[in-house]
């Protein structure tokens, strides 16, 4: 009643003395102050607030009361507002507060252009306060220190690719790689390429050499991935493979070839006594001395005991004329042991390559032709104890151990046709 209003100091002619949109009587029941426009319960507003109230800023957050009503935020909570709606100067209480608890005051965030309501303005997973102490940029999602990430990055950051390596930031986090470093392990291959290659972006020694497109880091350069005694950097300079201890496959490590003064990229240039590794297939299939016999056929399968038929200390695979004197400088080894040990696995006819016009025929003890070929010793034509196929013997059938008879016809350098014949023995 009017009397009570006089006692309370409110206006008996105004149902809302302070203009906050809540009737005086409701404020009495709510226990709020009908004479203070900023002391009210928001849910109790039933009247249109006054223009003074509308343009005021009860919580001091820089957003007018009416704008907060329009935005659907709380005009009584200084940390519930829309940043873009700030049109008046916030009060000192708001400026010294830290609405997002990121260690940076609201005022400082306004000065720096960060969001006082978002502890991680750029969404990179590092709160704004930590970025200040780290000296990184709170507004750049790609400028941060990885180990400082303590909050979940936002979706925009996760789908971005900060280091442009073809792998999203989120995937890099899942893979354990560095979203700020395109080549996490420093091997010269970017993380995206390692994913497509199927190699390990976290292991500097697991990569494909031809995929290197960026400069490796110093740690990689001073390492020795293949443990051959040569640093990765030096191998790149030398043109050898930093992932293969024996680049040319000759059984001698690249490091040993450096100390020996031989060429680690040339399979036919090495010191045989220094062979310590298995010989590569490409080396075994080669012909270092160009005599028509592969290195495999000449050196044997034991790299520490290469064949040396004439005891010159030079292995057969490096020595072209390693046979003893004979008619037309031709020597026939009459033992064939096709057991895969690399010694006498084929019928060796030394210097047969000098007489390409030749025919070799072999008969078993019953006179059945089991092998016949023209141009023996050319293009891989060698008798390996396997039948060429006749009426009683199947083609490609391994011949049994025993005595056989051979006939070799050839035209010598004077154009005279000659013949050599004799027995040979197959022993398995």
Automatic annotation (TrEMBL):
It is found in: Secreted. Its main location: secreted. Keywords: Calcium, Secreted, Signal. Residues 1-35, 49-77, 91-266 are annotated as: Disordered. It comes from the Bacteria. Residues 147-158, 210-221 have a biased composition (Polar residues). It holds the Pfam family CHU_C. Residues 1-16, 23-35, 66-77, 107-120, 127-142, 170-183, 233-246 have a biased composition (Basic and acidic residues). NCBIfam families: Bac_Flav_CTERM. PANTHER family: EXPORTED CALCIUM-BINDING GLYCOPROTEIN (PTHR37467:SF1), EXPORTED CALCIUM-BINDING GLYCOPROTEIN-RELATED (PTHR37467). This is Gliding motility-associated C-terminal domain-containing protein. It comes from Flavobacterium sufflavum.
